[in-house]
Amino acid sequence: MSGPATDAIPARFKPGDRVTVREAYPLGHLRTPFYARGATGVVERLCGAFANPEELAFNRPGLPAQPLYRVRFRQAELWADYRGPARDTIEIEIYQHWLEAAP
Amino acid sequence: MRSHHDMGGLEAGPVVPSEHDYAPWEKRVDALMMLLSARGLLKVDELRRNIEAIGPEAYDRMSYYERWITSITQTLLQRGVLTSDELGRRMEEMKARHAAEQAQ
Amino acid sequence: MSGQPHDHHVQGHHDHDHDHDHPHAPPPDADSDLTYHQAMELAVTSLLLEKGVFSADDMRRQIEAMDARHPGLGGKLVARCWVDPAFKARALADGSAACREIGLEIGPLKLIVVENTAEVHNLIVCTLCSCYPRMLLGLPPDWYKSRAYRSRAVHEPRAVLAEFGTHIPDDVEVRVHDSTADMRYLVLPRRPAGTEGWDEARLADLATRDSMVGVAFATSAG
């Protein structure tokens, strides 16, 4: 639970932007869930900038801080076999370095 | 590769609405995390990383605070706050003291 | 509290399914046994006390603070939202600021309040570990940390909700929040019918822990 940091990378995305989660599988301590990788959603809000947990996990400062977003996905985008209504969604916090602009 | 702790979307059985009153030793483990974190001797993401490093079989076998004390201790060893030798000796002392108390 | 010196409960509440035996499982926790991990806790705590990292008083105060946190704190926030639309708007915009406004001590908590409406039902989970708004609800229940909940809440939320007796119609969106990073989440449940004119203290009791996690509705009036 790190506080917002002052030494921060500028935010690239804004609410409403379509973004795709990078489909990457590096070693280390990651806060991007496996099931979300490669999925495309919409930025719900920018939460601020936070020290990078992938660095904090090794007792390094994690600066400059990464912008953190809440991204909203349609459940059907994440699970081919999703059984609920098409309107169901999920929101996940994702750091900027895991996101790419989607068409 | 998916890590063992990263379980969103995997098949699993029904959610059993289990809960228990936390035991004193479990509360002390939780307090250890808070105290060490406040003193800059442990970062929450280090705690998580060392939990994730527990082998899958052990991860599933251990209770929640068993995983935490394992991870907290691992972090303290990594940071040089504790040494394995003093830890091992003190654990033996604690077991001996407990056994002596039980024998009374 | 059980008042017992050892933890007799945990053995039955491991975060895994119980459909197979573990050949390397430790023996059942007998009264007189100090488990390996309990011995580790005692050893670590005593070494840190000895090294002056913290005092026994620090430890005691930390546990007292932990014991003082309970769902009534979250309930206080919910009740204020129910009676004061302007406050609710502020809480939805900045949950942490709203907590501080009504005197809730939340430390560095970054809170997002998500509102249940006629159109949306929210559900909170942490698939990667056990992130939980402990400053407002106390320590999480075992089920919240279980493999079953963490695995399934994101993939089949309606089935999980049904297991809690909470049935969401198909024309209501179920919105799951996976608490993966720095924010923590609290569900603002819908205010039960028949509570017009109730004072905040009485309303706060209707906002149960489970309703603020989203697995249940607020308790009905009467």
TrEMBL record, chain A:
InterPro entries linked to this entry: CN_hydtase_beta_dom_C, Elect_transpt_acc-like_dom_sf
Short name of any one Pfam family annotated for the protein: NHase_beta_C
Nitrile hydratase beta subunit domain boundaries: 8-100
The protein's name: Nitrile hydratase beta subunit domain-containing protein
Native species: Aliidongia dinghuensis
From TrEMBL, chain B:
Domain Nitrile hydratase beta subunit-like N-terminal: start-end pairs: 1-102
UniProt xrefs under InterPro entries: CN_hydtase_beta-like_N, CN_hydtase_beta_C, Elect_transpt_acc-like_dom_sf
Short name of any one Pfam family annotated for the protein: NHase_beta_N
Gene3D superfamilies hit by this protein: Nitrile hydratase, beta subunit
Domain of life: Bacteria
Protein's UniProt name: Nitrile hydratase beta subunit-like N-terminal domain-containing protein
